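Practice problem 4.
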């Protein structure tokens, strides 16, 4: 009897181990099958996708599929238009014990080309995306990156960010659109350019929603016109930025006018406006007369303060006919937005 007892006791861990391995294999096979189905759907939508042979892994904590040498290319005139992404490799994984998300991490340099823009090389200490499993009513993803660096494949400049987090959710039906949030810290802008407020942005965050159906046919101008005519708009519920002397929080609603140029209105709370306007005028971003007029209006709105803190003020902003104005005071005329043929 005692011998049988020890045999049973020894068999229990072996059975549990075998069950865990089987569970891992089933989960990994399902993950690989889901990847194949996703690739087939994208190919039916005009994508060209190539990669090396996928490999299973991740046991004992997760089921994972490693895809080396991934190359995705889209050249059709419908959205997203000309797009090309080359990755050294990606890893898809699902935790075995709390399978709520599919996690996607990228390895090595990522090469991205959009339209006629130069090819961009993106690297980072860690770049991951999470896609919820079994979510009803919306498709969403969350992107996280640290030590991010982007630079042209052949160029002397680069942009870096210490931390980046972004989330987007696509909804259908009567509320078709994309809800998004994004935040970044420790942003270093490219060298070799004259930045009026300095090269470093300490923080930048935004929350909002892009409304309207997204047309899939026609050139970019036709798509923009269709989106506008079907109620397309961009709602920025909250925007916050710390850049040099400027502290800014704002909200706005933007759309396209009859010339397919941005128009809209919003409100902003501005801290450090005097120093900011002086720097913008010195750099030629604003004319000296516009900066002087803006400072006069903002000083009246801000009133006086008994503290040593920089004055802050709430001010309405409007964008019309490519001119950004503050209480009917023109600040800057924006360049014309040119919609390419493709």
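Answer key:
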């Amino acid at each position: 009897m005692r011998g049988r007892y020890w045999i049973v006791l020894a068999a229990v861990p072996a059975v549990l181990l075998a069950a865990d391995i089987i569970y891992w294999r089933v989960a990994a096979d399902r993950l690989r099958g889901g990847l194949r189905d996703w690739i087939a759907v994208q190919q039916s939508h005009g994508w060209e996708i190539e990669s090396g042979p996928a490999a299973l892994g991740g046991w004992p904590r997760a089921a994972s599929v490693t895809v080396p040498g991934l190359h995705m290319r889209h050249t059709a005139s419908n959205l997203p238009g000309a797009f090309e992404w080359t990755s050294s490799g990606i890893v898809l994984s699902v935790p075995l014990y709390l399978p709520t998300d599919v996690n996607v991490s990228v390895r090595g340099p990522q090469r991205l080309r959009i339209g006629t823009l130069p090819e961009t090389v993106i690297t980072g200490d860690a770049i991951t995306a999470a896609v919820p499993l079994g979510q009803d009513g919306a498709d969403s993803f969350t992107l996280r990156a640290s030590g991010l660096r982007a630079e042209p494949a052949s160029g002397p400049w680069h942009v870096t960010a210490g931390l980046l987090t972004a989330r987007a959710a696509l909804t259908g039906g009567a509320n078709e659109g994309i809800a998004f949030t994004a935040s970044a810290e420790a942003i270093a802008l490219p060298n070799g350019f004259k930045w009026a407020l300095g090269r470093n942005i300490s923080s930048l965050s935004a929350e909002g929603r892009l409304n309207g159906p997204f047309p899939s046919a026609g050139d970019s101008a036709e798509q923009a016109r269709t989106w506008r005519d079907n109620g397309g708009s961009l709602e920025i519920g909250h925007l916050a930025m710390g850049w040099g002397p400027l502290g800014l929080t704002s909200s706005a609603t933007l759309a396209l006018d009859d010339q397919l140029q941005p128009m809209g209105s919003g409100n902003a709370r501005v801290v450090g406006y005097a120093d900011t306007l002086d720097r913008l005028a010195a750099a030629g971003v604003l004319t000296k007369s516009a900066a002087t007029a803006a400072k006069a209006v903002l000083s009246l709105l801000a009133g006086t303060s008994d503290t040593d803190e920089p004055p802050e003020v709430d001010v309405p902003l409007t964008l019309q006919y490519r001119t950004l104005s503050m209480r009917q005071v023109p600040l800057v005329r924006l360049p014309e937005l040119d919609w390419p043929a493709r």
